[in-house]
Amino acid sequence: MGEKSASPATSLLLRTFVKWMALRFPAPWPKGVQTRPEIEQGTGGGTPPGDFERDRAELIQVIERFTDPNRRFQWQPHPMFGAMDEWEWMRWGYLHTDHHLRQFGA
User: How far is 19 from 85, CA to CA, in rounded Å?
Assistant: First the structure.
């Protein structure tokens, strides 16, 4: 949504084959894939955990803004996958959320 910046880590392979696999292959995302350093929770610019209920409420607001068909932001290139269309961003958002919920057994 352009609210946080992350250095690009992309290549032709990531923008094509890996992107296709990540968004379309019917399997959960693997654990342990490194995020960009600027977003790393413990050492970078990621959001450290705080009050659980406040964090949960903020997450719900971000998801609502992300999925709002009347959004007030422009899609920015994904740090690994590059430019993505509406369907790809919605699919990525679903899979990314699912990936993190699985970490907590949800």
Answer: 12
